[in-house]
Amino acid sequence: MYGFPADLNPSVFGNKRLVQLRLLENCVFLDFEEEVEIVPRDRALETVQIRVDSCLTYTSHDGATEHEDVPHRNMNLNSLVGAVVVRATVDEASTLTLDFGGGRTLSCYEDAANYECYNITFGGHTYYV
Asked: Is residue 78 one of the residues assigned to a domain?
């Protein structure tokens, strides 16, 4: 609906570990975190959250691809919990793709003209796509 925000770099997902996956009736929450040094010898958790209200595509390590619209009841996303994002990209259609290495990817699409498809919460801001 809004397009991927120009002021959000998808690299905020880099080196973040997927620590929690929550499947609700009509959406999926993906919670990522990374321990970062804020001053010498003082560490904090930097978190990023994605709420997906639209379709997802998951590609597993063996190349099998699952594509599912809401609700996401049949996807096998559990294997991603604990995995670290090695790269994140956004294409011109505002599709966010998270690469977990080893052929595993997760893509969130902006495919509804009248509704937010996914949102990202990072650094105290929520960005709607």
From this structure: yes
